[in-house]
Amino acid sequence: MAQNKKSNFIVIDDSKLDCFIAEKVIKNTGLSEAITSYVNAIEALEVIRENIAPGELHTIILVDIQMPIMNGFQFVEAFEELPDEVKTNYSIYVISSSINDRDLNRVNTYASVKQFLNKPLNSNTLCALLQK
Amino acid sequence: MTIRDKIKVLYIDDEQNNLVGFKATFRFDYTIFIASDVQQAYTYLKANPDICIVLCDQRMPEITGSKFFEEMREEYPEPVRMLITGYADIESVIEAVNKGHIFRYIKKPWTDADVRSAIEEGKKYYISNSLLAAKNKELQSAYDELGKFTYSVTHDLRGPLLSVIGAIDLARDMDDLPEIRSLLNMMDDAVKKLDEFIRNTHEYYNLKRGKIVSEDIDFNRIIADTTSIFKISGRMENVKFTANVMQNGSFYSDETSIKIILNNLLSNAFKFQRKNISDKFVDLNIKVENGIAEILVRDNGIGIHESHIDNIFTMFYRATSETPGSGFGLYNVKDAINRLNGNIKVQSTFNEGTLFIVSIPGMANGTK
Question: Which domain holds residue B39?
């Protein structure tokens, strides 16, 4: 991705504070267009599923692991079932407070997950991945 | 099982006379099953998993006693096995000991005293073994819970901490006072959640390790204590709370457990309110009658979706992402109710409200 190209963002985290932090950090990079936060992964998935028209901008998804109702792994698994023309518009990053090896190893088993990020999200990490 | 219970003993022998004689001699002291062949023996073992001792003759037409024990041990390892043989057949005894893991070898013709003392010894062995098995099971479940607990601790303790660290980091570069204030409010929630988790952990260990004490329960006082804490924390704001206590006579129970039950049920009722309605209410009704306390907690909050209702008492289970919770509260409630031999029922309609019905039998006065 070119350095100055902007992206849309979807933040999925059951902690409202973590959503807020992510939104702020993303905004501060100056590389974002729309940022949408969801405390419930199912809602996010519905929106992604219905939004099949390929947008001009790529969307970056930051998803937490441990959430009630639908956790981050379940979200990624459901996302991978979506048609390719939908999936291609998104990049998934898993962001968590987990230091559990099983969680970290499991993240690596998903083809659609680009990278695991440690909480709290900070602008250095985010800028680094946006400039990749 | 205790040492005084009448235990079940199974005797297998192809000679009918021996079976009849055995039953006649021991039927007053033990519950005796007699089988003239192995098939019948298996039928008894299947129907009576609590058979404690199996005695078997060595020389039978279709199978030897030691061979039978070797086979039986695979499916029914618990009963204590004793071989009876009239032949000085040292080979078969060695085989029975090594492969059939028999507890005793009884020589034919047996005397009543020999058999009786063998059965009594076997019974002690069986009881201590089953106590050990029960302890092992307890240990395993404690170990499983510890595993779950350690896993969740990284999330439930670390999560709010990392949120606050992230927020502090953001606040450093903020100049807008209202924005900083709203950030502070969110940090406050995160820290409170952490505190709630720690308090719930404390309750959990109180329940697991604490002794149950029989105390005179004054429900009015417990409610006053509990609600005064809610009032300070502002949780009852905009929610109409009514408490009705009908207590005829004394009620004895464990106050710590009762407090945990009431505190969690009320705290949930206040917490899981629908934000957009104006007539929010929480009703508490307690009726003590015939030595049984019935506690009803009703609210018109967000309700519990049908698909979650079977899981609400599971440790760390959370049915909503709208309101923060530790997934610990109702687990503790259920645990406390189990300790008091009570039961809990829940009726709930999503987006309408929830009713918890708890029934607790009183304890004897002053017993521990």
Answer: 8-110
**Minimal CA separation from B301 to chain A, in Å:** 18
Q: Are residues B72 and B204 in the same domain?
A: no
| Tens-digit pLDDT profile for residues B131-176 | 998 899 889 988 887 887 777 777 778 888 998 999 999 899 889 9
State how many domains chain A has. Answer: 1
Shortest Cα distance, chain A CAs vs residue B327, angstroms: 9
Residue A1 domain-assigned (yes or no): no
**Sequence-separated (6 or more) residues with CB below 8 Å from residue A63:** A12, A13, A41, A44, A72, A75, A76, A92, A93, A94, A95
At A76-126, the pLDDT tens digits run 999 999 998 888 899 999 999 888 888 889 999 999 999 999 999 988 889
Name beta bridge partners: B215: B253
- Beta-carbon separation of A17 and B186 below 8 A: yes
Least CB–CB distance from B166: residue in A21, A40, A100: A21
Instruction: Count residue pairs from A and B with Cβ separation < 8 A.
Output: 72
The structure tokens listed for A114 are 């680009």
Say if A97 is an interface residue toward chain B (CB within 8 Å).
yes
Nearest CA in chain A to B193: A15
DSSP labels for B202-265? HHHHHHHHSPP--EE--HHHHHHHHHHHHHHHTTTTT-EEEEEEEE-S--EE-HHHHHHHHHHH
> CA–CA separation, B346 vs B343, rounded Å?
10
